[in-house]
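Structure first, sequence second, as always.
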């Protein structure tokens, strides 16, 4: 189970090696993704709080990267954080997520990205529930829910 200390360590010293890499040109990403998905995942945007389709869905399944279909989170670790975005306590695998120190907007945060394709997902914070204490705050537009893996 990942802890905040390990998340910070990844963001400073380097991320775990992904199982595979997916790299495409900007034109290829634009052709594949909706304009909103492209803005969020490739341009590091965010959606308005409580606007994402996956915010209030708690169906069983696996949340995959909208860009490359890499499994990111399992529905069993999703929780209602009150933040306005889907929230999770752990990635499905330690190497599914890439961590980057984010100093935009005059604050220090840890950005989370798909470790396979570098798609922006959201941020992780140390204010989640036990036992990990982590809250992965993820944009709905950056994921798909695969109910077949339930």
């Amino acid at each position: 189970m990942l802890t905040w200390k390990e998340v910070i360590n990844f963001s400073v010293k380097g991320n775990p090696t992904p199982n595979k890499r997916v790299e495409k040109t900007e034109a290829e990403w634009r052709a594949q993704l909706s304009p909103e998905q492209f803005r969020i995942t490739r341009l590091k945007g965010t959606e308005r709080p409580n606007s994402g389709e996956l915010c209030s869905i708690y169906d069983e399944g696996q949340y995959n990267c909208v860009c490359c279909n890499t499994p990111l989170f399992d529905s069993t670790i999703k929780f209602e954080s009150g933040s306005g975005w889907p929230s999770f306590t752990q990635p499905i695998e330690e190497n599914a997520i890439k961590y980057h120190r984010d100093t935009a907007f005059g604050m220090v945060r840890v950005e989370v990205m798909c470790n396979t394709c570098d798609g922006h997902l959201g941020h992780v914070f140390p204010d989640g529930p036990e036992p990990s204490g982590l809250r992965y705050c993820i944009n709905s537009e950056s994921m798909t829910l695969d109910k077949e893996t339930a």
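Margin note: Helices lie at 4-13, 26-32, 35-41.
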